[in-house]
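Anyone else keep sequences and structure tokens together like this?

Example one:
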Amino acid sequence: MRPPLPGVHWTGHSLRIGLASTGRKKGKDGITIADQGGWARHSRLAA
């Protein structure tokens, strides 16, 4: 893994939303993404 760019601050949310975005791009269903990211299964983010 490369070190972060100078001035870039990663948060837990950055990693969670990155997981969701990547999962969606790879065709994962919303329920799986919600379970992995810790969102409610019927959250808008999991839609």
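And example two:
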Amino acid sequence: MKILQRLFQSEAMRAQPDAKEALDKMKALDKVQAVIEFTPDGRIVDANENFLKVMGFDSY
């Protein structure tokens, strides 16, 4: 999720209202869904608080 957020927060995207709306939607989903992000070869890149809680891990 953090990678996508950085993409949407770039200068070029910040100037576009559609990009801000997409970022706001992503932030809202991050609050209510358990999300984990992987590299193409299966390594974990990021996991949100909800995912960590569901899996029984402490937050990072």
